[in-house]
Amino acid sequence: MSSDSLKETLAALHEELSRTSALDEKSRARLRQIIREVEGLGPSSASAADTLHRHRLEELAIEFEIEHPTLAAGLRQLIDLLAKAGL
């Protein structure tokens, strides 16, 4: 996985988040927070913390699946990219 792929996926999530008006503020804040945390991940990140991020991303994807399928798909793509990068 290239850092470009991760940046593109994160940018797409930011874009979708800005377009999604039906998302409640609590969910919007949770999504913004996890995206910021993922942006800060790097090769020196602890694997337990990385697993936690993937778990939280998956929880959000499940939560958004019905009402916000594009966000859910973007989150799952992010999960896959992080796994491929070993993060």
* Rg of Cα set: 12 Å
Domain module count: 1
Proportion in β-strands: under 5%
Task: State the separation between the terminal residues, measured CA to CA.
Answer: 11 Å
From the helix content, strand content and strand pairing, which structural class follows? mainly alpha
Order of SSEs: HHHH
Low-confidence stretches: none
The residue fraction in helices comes out at over 70%
Tell the overall outline.
Answer: globular
Rounded mean pLDDT is: 76
The strand count comes to 0
Q: Please outline the major beta sheet.
A: none
Number of helices: 4
Commentary on this structure:
The chain has one domain. It is mainly alpha-helical. The longest helix has 18 residues, at 47-64. The protein has helices at residues 3-19, 25-39, 47-64, 69-84. The mean pLDDT is 76. Helix 1 runs antiparallel to helix 4, helix 2 packs antiparallel against helix 3 (47-64) and helix 3 (47-64) runs antiparallel to helix 4.
